[in-house]
Design brief:
Blueprint lengths: L6 E4 L8 H12 L8 E4 L1
Parallel strand pairs: 1-2
Amino acid sequence: MTQMPHVWIGTSWKMNKTLGEARAFAGGLLADPQGDPRIQRFV
């Protein structure tokens, strides 16, 4: 069996976010810690 390749999904971190926006952004990334094992998230 061939293993599926990993998919990398990334985003940039803008230094002009307010504290509330930064917390919401980080919370969104952490919302699904198990997620799809083929996806590697990064900032």
